[in-house]
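Archive maintenance. Older records in this collection stored only the sequence; we are now back-filling the structure field for every entry so that each record is complete. The fields below show one back-filled record exactly as it appears after the update. Entries are processed alphabetically, and Stage II sporulation protein E (SpoIIE) is next in the queue.

ARCHIVE ENTRY
Title: Stage II sporulation protein E (SpoIIE)
Organism field: Raineya orbicola
Length field: 735
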Amino acid sequence: MQKIVDSTWNEIQKNIFTKDIAYKINDFLIDNPDQNISKEIATIISSQLEEQAKSDTNSVKYYVSYLNYLAYWYLKNDKNSLIAEKYLDKIFQVIAKNNKTCQYYPLLDVLPDVLSSRKRDFDIVEDLLKLSLKRIEKYKCYAALVFFEFDLATYTGQRKGDFKQSLKHLLRANQLIETYYNQIPIQQVIELYDILGSTFYRSSNYEKAILYWGKLEKILAEKFAKNEKYHYPYARILNNIGLMYFRQEKYDEAMPYYLKAIEVAKKEKLDFWVSLPKGNIGDILLKKGYVDSSYTYFQEYLNNAYKHQDWSIVVAGHTKMANYYLKKGNLAKAQENAFKADSILNARNKDIFILNPILINISRRNILQAQAEIFEKTGKYPEALKVQKEFIHLSDSINKATNAQQVLMLNAEFEVQKEELENDKLKKEIKQRELFLVISAIISLVSIILGIVTLLSRLKIQKQTALLQEKNEEILAINEALAVKNQDVMDSILYAERIQKTFLPYENRLKKTLQNYFILYKPKDIVSGDFYYVTQQNQATFIILGDCTGHGVPGALMSIMAVTLLDQIIIDKHIHEPAQILQELDKSVVKFLHQQETHNHDGMDISICVWYPATRKLVIGGAKTFILLKSQETLEEIRTDRYNIGGYNTQIEKIFTQQERILAPSTLIYLFSDGYIDQFNTEHRKIGKKRFIELIAENMHKPLQEQQKILSDFVETWRGGEEQIDDIAVMGVLL
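Back-filled structure field:
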């Protein structure tokens, strides 16, 4: 064995300051079939390196890297985190002894780079990075903390595909930068702002993209003014911000950024970034009706794309030219450019470097839109209809994917802000305890001093009063910071409300599908766990109302999940029978929330009505709800199945059923959650089921909009100032 130790030691000495040794030592430790020999050899070499590091400060760096390999090795082979942590603690002892904490932290990233290049052990690498991060926090080396949060974002996002966790690490890095801006290297700040801008852009959150790219633009503008060197094309960031305003149809705000991008690119002699904003300016001119003026910009944009062989820009350029020729009425040229865009996108799909597949679909959608208009104007109506259907289907797919990303991002932002609030609350409690101890000490001290010398006591009291004032000011500052954080959380909840509204049916669709209806919708906390769902498929109209576990943001996330699953079941899978919809929805919720493997018991109660106007047939199903049906002078209560969707009953077999009715003209149906029935008054009495049914029966002959107002006024009067305890949703539809 001594021979192996000597040869390994010689290899280390030969390669001690090169990255090759990372590969060699890693191969030896991991691939050696006799793990006991590997452990023994690793321990001997560790001792020899430690001795060498005592007399040779240059060897410290390699000693640190080597200890990091050992930590990884024990995590992988022995699944022994205690020994791994022992080696990490040793690393920080060595670093602290040499006063090099912040300078040496990149050494802990060498091994992850090695393993990443070989595409293996991402989970173990992530654990190793987290353990290192935990220790770096003790040393208050904020640049190192940003470095590791950024690194973890890369591993969880690009290499493991966990988009939400990746964003959480990026947002934590951003919090560190905002708090300790002057202690973070500017290159780290630049990289973080750029990746955050790109992340929010890809999920169509243009306001947040502008926020982070705007911060980056200020940094680059300052460097540009001073003629300082920097690696990021300033023109690219200016063009990106202009594009964000363009996507929001704020053309006047977009134009100055495009013009500035051209000016900067010319000065830096970057012809690609001169032509790209020009193509975007052409889009604005076309939108505003300056058709002839747009041509020159589009032509330069397209020529430069071919010159640089940037095929994504070539596709966009031909699409722009197709739109230009459509406006000019030259349908042959329009068709030629649309065909080129489509064929290049298909041929060069793998060559087009677009990180997000959603953006590839957006290019295809733009081509389809142009093609549909060309076919329509040339009288090829069957082709136009076919392409238009493809365009609508792709648009829906893009919207679903974008909404799903927005939900993940919202969830990540909410969790990071929640963590920060909890940390701030903990810090406040610690400050208050410190204040209490200080006050106690002061009182004791003052009591002793009063017995000795009155004059000295007065002086001491004055000093302690100043200290108390300072502590009180600190508490006030903490309270103000908490107020800001609370406002951030409220902003996120309001953003969640906007997202949730995009999942609920728009008023135009409701009017077109239902004609005469009312919806009373009162979330408890801005966003709601209750939802309503209306869609028309073939000859059937689907009217659905659900009540998900919880309210506020958690309830809203559940309701968004429910609507997404209903889209998949009814629209994508063409399942149209209520009993089958319920069965599929239950399986999907259990699978989506991993309820067979975890202690998650979230679920929903739901009412489903499928209406066939041609035959006046109504098919009813539900989970733990009841529906009211008014026909002529009677009000019938229709009970649904006793199971709910998901929830606690995941281990038993659920068999859902449905009922059919042939309805007389002018029949009314009422769907609702239990939120209305469960509201308390000042005497702590609920509205209750009986009183609710009586209220419906008394007013069911009145116009629907009047019924909605009566129900809304009644519940507000009933509560009499008491807090709303649950989300409220009541829906009345005339069939």
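Update note: Residues 16-23, 434-439 have pLDDT under 50 and may be disordered. DSSP finds 26 helices and eleven strands in the chain.
Entry marked complete.
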